[in-house]
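Exam review. A common question shows you a sequence with its structure tokens and asks you to describe the fold in words. Practice with the pair below. Do the first one on your own.
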Amino acid sequence: MAKIAKRVATSREGIDVNKAYGLNEAIELLKDRSKVKFDETIEIAMNLGVDPRHADQMVRGVVNLPNGTGRTVRVAVFARDAKADEARAAGADVVGAEDLVEIVQKGEINFDRCIATPDMMPLVGRLGKVLGPRGMMPNPKVGTVTTDIAAAVKASKGGAVEFRVEKAGIVHGGVGKLSFDTKALEENVRAFADAVNKAKPAGAKGVYLKKVSITSTMGPGLKVDLASIAPVA
């Protein structure tokens, strides 16, 4: 049996792996057990009752976290003329058309999120094999193919998080930094969970939301009581 590192063992002390903690308590436990010198990311994982191999059970969307992600997001925009100027004014880090396509084709991807105007998609489509595996291909369903470039750039910079169910029926995403106060993290977690709930596909049968857990970059995974992540009225 593999030996558990001392730091990991310490972070797990007092944790009941069979208990579903209230959201507030789970966040406080992660904060109390942090022993690293960097600002850890808080991540949520949601186990859903779907089989994404079927098109009518795919879960995908985007959520604007009310308190941001706590990380700097570099945004690239494929646009021309006035829309390119709009992107730059909104704070896009990289803006271009054919020239940007050439850069990406060379493997130079100096951005985290990609946005495009609809007229650019025939051009951007050539980058499917490069951007697709990284989950960065612009898609109208998550607001990254749009004519409202300024709003898309600001949303990406301000805390927009894309989510997509994986083969095992799990959706996960970063919902903030450990340095955020507990209330801010609670609001972000609830916003993420609410967006996933609203993205329930027509083909989903039976129990949709099975299990939720949160963790920090170097911390333990904690089961969360489903009732505690419901939006506050």
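Now try the second one, then compare your answer with the model answer below.
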Amino acid sequence: MQKHKRKPLFFFLIPYMPWLLLLLGIDLFAVLLLWIADAQAFFAMSVVIALAAIGLFSAVSYVLIRLERKKEQTFYEFLEQPDEYHEELLQKAVSLTDRDAVRKLGDCLREQQKEQIRMQEKICDYEEYVEAWAHEIKTPLSLLTLLLDNRREELPAGIDYKLDHIRNRMQESVDQMLFYARLKGARKDYQFEHIHIRSCIEELIEDYRPLLEEKEFQIQYSLADDLVYADRRGLCFLLGQIVSNSVKYCSEQPELYMTSFLEKERYVLSVRDNGIGVRSCDLPYIFEKGFTGDSGEGRKKATGMGLYLAAEIAKEMGVWLRVGETRGSGLEMQVVFPIVR
């Protein structure tokens, strides 16, 4: 059961303060009457009267505090497990006028619990459907990849690049959908390990090679064979979204630079292009879901999901995705990794 912050004792007496003050007033009035009736007897019994008043006030306060603490504890237990048993315990702890409200609250909480269970079942069904669909769509994608690998020479000139483009776009859309479901789902299956960043980049460039060659990208990277601590699938997806954006919004003579450096005990991977970039007024919003900006015709067809998913995956892995250069000089995205030894 969840622990709750312990409240000061006087807090439980606040609802009863008018009655306690009335009790104190009655004691003082009785003392005043005794003093008027017989001042000598009053002074003789003053100590006894004071002790009796303090004892009575303390006893009443002690009983009230215990009752309120028990009521509070019973109420918290009822909130965490609003079944009929805990509802009955709470009804015994509260006054008669509050029992009807407790009954209605119990009915409402139990109905919400049932609705939450139904929604959780729907979410699980949706996750299973998405995973099954993604598994099924991989078959035609694999066949298309096999065709391009083995029969590329038999295809008319230019068709192989178009098929490569289609395959990469389909694969990217499937990956986005899977990672979105992964982020929003209740189950997480990240596998963190030390990854050679250079090998990860080389694998990524190989995956995007048809698109990069079609756009005639000049690729330069200067990376040490450093280790970063992350989930490999998540990291490849994150970097893939950055490279995909560079391809979508490239210039006439596109270039892609990848470098790494250390910054205050952190490892920074920089991916920079010379494309159309992002307007400075749009920079604060580029990681928001659905944001596309107005940098060129290409963004009108964008979904605004790529960098959003990349930023969310970065948070899940405990790394930091940030932006550098603005429009006119391309765009630089930096992935900052904490050094884990």
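Model answer, second protein: Residues 130 and 200 are 27 Å apart (CA to CA). The beta strands are 192-196, 218-222, 227-231, 255-262, 266-273, 320-323, 332-338. Full marks require stating both points clearly.
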